[in-house]
Design goal:
CATH class of the largest domain: Alpha Beta
CATH architecture of the largest domain: Alpha-Beta Barrel
Number of domains: 3
Strand content: 15-25%
CATH superfamily of the largest domain: Dihydropteroate synthase-like
Strand order of the largest sheet: 3-6-7-8-9-10-11-12
Helix content: 25-40%
Radius of gyration: 27 Å
Shape: globular
Distance between the termini: 65 Å
Oligomer: single chain
């Protein structure tokens, strides 16, 4: 059961030293109870108190790290069942499934074709699941083909000896060994310990999954993920929800407090539309890793967009840093175009500006991370805010005195010109998609 602020306060040094960043020990204790601050931020906490509180205040779902370098990902660490309660913290990761007896190179190459940026985040298949097909030697060769591909490896293998051999060629990349069952968990724990990797736990049903996980914990190993894949969609969905509810309920059961794996290649094999639909469901409920037959743009575009929306903190707007962004080789003489700092607006507008090929300086001021009309309605985008930013940050760096503003706030044109003597304010189009033609027409007419 989570500790209350007063319980945590009783174990603090009560010095009110402020070194933790809070004005008092009570304020610090309240923040720890809310999950806003880690207990280790207090430099004067006794070792005994720190050990006791660290365990009591730890998230009910353990945070697990897998992979290395750019392919290192954090799984778990969730504290709520529903995003609106606070936020989801560790985005679902997508894996492509390859069978050891199939064309591994072709499967990996096909998945690698999907690689693009969306609102500042790279979208690609982050993991690859290598499925054991019964031949240990062939399995090792298949694993060798995915090493060094920039994807976190999942070893879908319940054969202890084959798993040992496969880990010898890939353990440096910190894979997931998804192979512990009720029959082999003791041996698999030793294999995972020796290699220092995360162990995936499987069960014939939810009860067996629980019992096997509890048995592994008794052996002292807690670097785990739970494979909640059942015999069909209904069972898999039920398992995923029950595992998440068990560890995040009012009285959490930490035996189920681990990230989950959902293998759609088992419950919807070779059915692309169904896999896309199920993957979208398990982004919401509650797959930490979703394994699919492959990844292509038909799958990626809806799934990555959904994931990015779901795993954005609803309490924090998506913002880009205010500044002057020179596009298409723009220099100090290029026309200035301004919009808000809402990340989606920025990336849509900057994309269209780049597509136009017209050199321009995109000026982003602080608008609270809101869209154009919302920022205008809230007073965050006004003639005062725009002119002040231009005077303080743009005029010292840019010689051009032409400024294009969004068409939806054309009402600001007169006020901005009054507050920016010597500037010509041009009203741009209402929609970003119209910017290409708009800029090319201005350029052709010699207006910019």
């Amino acid at each position: 059961m989570a500790l209350k602020g007063i319980d945590i306060f009783k174990m603090t040094p009560k010095t009110n030293c402020k070194e933790c960043g809070s004005p008092t020990c009570m304020a610090f204790a309240m923040k720890v109870a809310q999950g806003a601050v880690d207990i280790s931020k207090c430099p004067h906490m006794s070792d005994d108190a720190l050990a006791a509180l660290s365990e009591a205040t730890a998230p009910p779902m353990k945070t697990i790290k897998v992979g290395t370098g750019e392919a290192e990902y954090t799984l778990g660490g969730e504290t709520v069942l529903f995003r609106h309660e606070k936020t989801f913290v560790s985005p679902t990761r997508f894996a492509v499934n390859v069978a050891a007896d199939a064309d591994v190179d072709a499967a990996v190459a096909e998945a690698a074709k999907v690689d693009y940026d969306r609102i500042g985040e790279r979208m690609h298949a982050e993991m690859v699941n290598v499925e054991y097909a019964g031949d240990a030697a062939a399995y090792v060769e298949a694993v060798k083909k995915v090493v060094g591909k920039g994807m976190t490896i999942i070893l879908g293998c319940t054969d202890v000896e084959a798993a040992k051999a496969a880990l010898e060629v890939c353990k440096a990349e910190k894979p997931i060994l998804n192979g512990a069952t009720a029959a082999n968990y003791a041996e698999m724990v030793e294999v995972a310990k020796a290699a220092g990797v995360v162990l995936g736990v499987n069960g014939a049903n939810i009860d067996e999954l629980y019992d096997t996980t509890a048995a592994i914990e008794k052996l002292g190993y807690k670097e785990l993920v739970l494979d909640v894949t059942g015999a069909d969609t209904k069972e898999t969905y039920g398992n995923a929800v029950r595992v998440r509810r068990a560890c995040l309920d009012k009285n959490p059961d930490r035996t189920f407090g681990y990230p989950s794996i959902v293998n759609l290649s088992k419950i919807a094999a070779n059915d692309e539309p169904m896999q896309i639909a199920l993957a979208s469901m398990f982004v919401l409920k509650y797959g930490s890793i979703v394994i699919m037959d492959t990844m292509n743009y038909a799958r990626a575009l809806p799934l990555y967009g959904l994931r990015q929306n779901v795993y954005t903190d609803p309490q924090k707007p998506m913002k880009v840093e205010p500044g002057i962004y020179a596009l298409n080789g723009a220099d100090e003489n290029a026309v200035c175009i301004t919009t808000v700092d809402f990340a989606l607006t920025y990336f849509v507008v900057s994309g269209e500006l780049e597509r136009s090929g017209v050199p321009c300086n995109l000026v982003i001021s602080d608008a609270g991370g809101l869209s154009v009309l919302t920022a205008w309605a809230a007073g965050k985008l006004s003639s005062t805010s725009v002119s002040k930013y231009i005077i303080e940050n743009v005029e010292p760096k840019v010689k051009s005195r032409k400024l294009i503003i969004p068409g939806k706030v054309a009402v600001l044109k007169g006020d901005i010109e009054a507050k920016l003597p010597g500037w010509e304010v041009i009203v741009g189009p209402n929609e970003a998609v119209q910017l290409v033609k708009f800029l090319k027409d201005l350029q052709a007419n010699g207006e910019i």
